Amino acid sequence: MENGNHRAATAPRTDDRIKLNVGGKLFETTISTIQAGGPDSLLAALSNRTSDDPDPVFIDRDPEIFSVILSLLRSDGLPSTARRFSKQELADEALYYGIESQLKSAMLPPPLSGIDASIVTTVQPASDGLPSAITAGTDGSVWIAHGGQISSYDWNLSHAGTIRTHLEDINSICRVYPEIAAVGSETDPGLHFYDFSGVRNMGSIHWTDPTDPRIFKARVTAVSDSPSSVFAGFDCPHRENCILVIDKLTLKIVSELSRQSGSSAKNLAVGKLTWLPETGLIVGSSVTSGAFGYSGYIRMWDPRLNEVVWETNEPGSGRSSRFGDSFADVDVDVEESALFKVCSKSGDLAMADLRNLGDDPWVYLQDKNPSMRTKGSANCSSVIHCYKSQAFVGRDGALEVWSRLPRAENRVDRESEVCEGLYRRNFVDKEEDAQRGIIKKIEGSGNRLFVVREDVEVDKLKEFALVASHSRDQNFWLAGPLSWDFHVMNASMRFLEHKIKEDSYTACTRFLFLFLLSPIKPLRE
Question: What pLDDT is recorded for position 312?
Answer without folding.
Answer: 92
